[in-house]
Each structure stands twice: as C-alpha cells, then as structure tokens.
Amino acid sequence: MQPARFHALRDKVMATVDKTLAEPVALTFFKNGKVDPSRPKIEIEAVLRVGGGKDSSVSGGSDRSWRSRIAAQKAELHIDCSKYPDLVVVPRDVVRAVSRHGEPRFEVLTIDERSMTRLVLHLGEK
Amino acid sequence: MLARIALRIAAFEALQGKTQAADNVFDSRITTLDVDGDGKLVTDQTKPFITIYTEGSKIESGIEQRSLHKSGPTEFMIEYGIAATMTVVNPETEEDEVLPGIAGLDDAFEFYLDVVGRQITNALTDPNDPWAEIWRGLSSSIIRIEHKRTSDASGVRVAAHQLLITLDLLPDPVFGVPIAPTSIWAKLFAQLETVNHPFLPTMRSLLGLDETPLGHEGSRRRFGLTLEEARALCVTPPLPAETTEPNFAPVSQIVGP
Question: Is A10 exposed, middle or buried (0-12, 13-18, 19+ CB in 10 A)?
C-alpha cells in the first residue's frame, strides 16, 4: 500500500476519535454458517453507532398486505484500519458489543472498505 | 361475527405446539414483534412466530333479502416468519441454527418457512385434533389458497410466508334459534367449555339462547324481513294467530265458518 501525504493527519484524527468514542467489540468470523477456523475470534476497539428503532412490515416497507411488523434498526461499526490492518470481514460475521447492556449481537450485512479513513461495517440485528 | 371468532379460536388452538414456532402463535397481532403477548420487551432469544388473522369477506350474490347472518367467502390469513434475531444461538461459538444442525443462512430461512408451512397444513388437516375438526367444520369448502413470500435485510435479515385461504365460511347461527346438537356450533361450544375459554360467556350471550322466539320471528331474523314482507310471503301464520303461532301440524281437517 502506497502512503499519501494526508495519512499522518488521518491517523492522528482517528486515534483521537477512537480514544474517546471507541468501545470493545468481539468479532466472530464465519464461513458457510459455521465458525471460520482460519479467522479466529478477536476483540477490537471501534466506534459503534446504532440507529433509531423503526418498525416496518416483514417486507421491509409499509406494504399493507403483510401484517407482521418487526422493529429493527441498522447499526454501523467504524473500524480504524490503520490500527487493524489485517482485518478481513465478510457478510454474516457476527459482532458482539461486549461493553453494552445485554451484550447485543449484530451480524454484518454489507461492508464499505473503500473509505479513506475507516472500514465501515453495516450491521443488522441478530 | 361468531363464525369469524370461532375460526380464529379453532385455528389458534389447533396450531399450538404443532410447529417449529411452538407456542409462539399469535391471534390478530397488531404490535411489533419486539414485544411478546403481554407487552413485555423480548430481550431473551426471540422465537419465530406464526400469526393468524381473519381478513375481509364480501358477499355480492345469494343474499336472500337481508341475510346479515351470512359470512360469505372469508379470507383466513396465516403469516409466519423468521428473522436473524430468532435463530437459536450457541453463546460460545456464536453459531446459529434455524433447525437442529442447520445454520441460519438465507436458504435455511426459506427451508424453515416451508417446513412450518407443511406443519401448519398437517395441523389443520389432522383428523384426530378436535380443534382442527372444528376449524374444518366451520366452512363448507376452501375456495382459494394463495402462498406469498417476502424477505428483507435492512434492519434485520427476515423472511416470511403468508398463507391466504379464502373459505366459504358458514353463516352465523341466527339469534334466538335453538342450536341443533349435531351442528358445528354445538361442537364448538362444548369444546370451548372443556377448556373454559374466557370468550365463552360473551359468545354464548350472543346466541340469544334465553330467548324463545316464535318460528316466524326466527325466519324474520334469518332473512331480515319486515313484518309486511313476512306476511306477504306467508312466513307468518294467519293474522289472528300471529302472536301465538299455534302448532298447525296436528290439524287434519279444517271446518269452514
């Protein structure tokens, strides 16, 4: 990976943000529904933000032909990739917020790894 | 209407414990699935659900006069689903299962839903279950069966199926008219009594069994006839006998004035 001139500033900003806002989360990696033996479980520190609860029908919208309603919220985990450069995450991996009440579980729905600052995991409830 | 109530109660009882959703069967649920039947937040492992609803019905022909007791082709809906929050999780490995030995992947969700669909069919066609028998006896036939499917992955990964059954629901028993012991209503009320169902007293009061209407009054209720219409159709006895409605059956000879 080639360095860029803004990297020094970027790393300093991320480290400062993480020092205040990051929380410990446990990542468990999966392959085909089973724990992936090549990627052991780790605990990292990253910024976790959970969205406001919104309820929708099971079809995801307000489709009136479906009666059952689910209240579930999107969440995002922002990981400092310069701190964890070897981290590989794929959809279905499980994130556990070990420092939150009840230690809630999330599963990775999509990954945004192209940001200049962070690896962003879009999470769904589990 | 009583037939709709009966349909829901019978299906609800027939499905209890018969599917992967176990006793997580709901009747006409409105609130979101974050809360259980008592309104408490479900923080423990949520279970997959089944909900039953009686939806609309429309009768546009065959309504003799004003037969409001008719039920018509009624939509009976069974909705069941599974979300990523509803799988069984092993707390050490974080691995989850929808069914024993089957990991909670997307195709497993769909497999689970079809398994439940089959279990629902097995439960409602069970010849040995008194509740299923009552559910079957409340309609003369099923007119239409529709299977629907949906899924979503915005806040949580969820998939659901809907079984929409349009059945020719029996008309409600007419108010005041005694119920034949062989009728489905007698069976239903006997069954409700064996489980001491909380709805039973109200339902019974709606039957009007304490009233003892005259025959022509029962007919007027059944068809919604005005007095003039009933007289014109000779549903009522001759005018002098209208209020007493004596039994003319044993009469063998009528002597003129």
Answer: middle
- ipTM of predicted complex: 0.86
Cβ distance B32 to A69 less than 8 Å, yes or no, reads yes
Chain A contact set for B34 (CB, 8 A): 53, 55, 70-71
- Phi, psi angles (nearest 5°) of residue B82: -145, 135
The dihedral over CA atoms of B161, B46, B96, A53, expressed in degrees to the nearest 10, equals 80
Token pair 């008219």 in the structure block, residue: B177
pTM of the model: 0.87
A72 with B31: Cβ contact below 8 A: no
User: Helix, strand or coil for residue B106?
Assistant: helix
Cβ of A68 within 8 Å of Cβ of B49? The answer is: yes
**Strand-pair partners of B28:** none
Give the bridge partners for A80, in sequence order: A118
- Packed helices B2-15 and B130-137: angle between N→C axes, nearest 10 degrees: 150
In sequence order, the 6+-apart residues with CB closer than 8 A to the CB of A51 are: A73, A74, A75, A76, B155
Q: Find where tokens 């019905």 sit.
A: B57
Answer yes or no: is pLDDT of B40 > 70: no
Calculate the alpha carbon distances from A65 to B59, B71, B113 in Å.
Answer: 21, 22, 18
Place of tokens 């009686």: B54
Angstrom distance (rounded) from CA B57 to CA B65: 18
The CA–CA distances, whole Å, from B68 to B5, B59, B174, B202, B222 equal 16, 10, 10, 20, 8
d(CA A30, CA A28): 7
Residue B116 is encoded by which pair of tokens?
A: 């439940």
Distances in Å between the Cα of A48 and the Cα atoms of A5, A10, A95, B126, B248 are: 28, 19, 10, 50, 85
Which token pair is B237? Answer: 């006895």
> Between residues B134 and B39, which one has the greater pLDDT?
B134
At residue A6 the predicted structure's pLDDT band, cuts being 50, 70 and 90, is: very high
CA proximity to B155, closest of A66, A71, A103, A78: A71
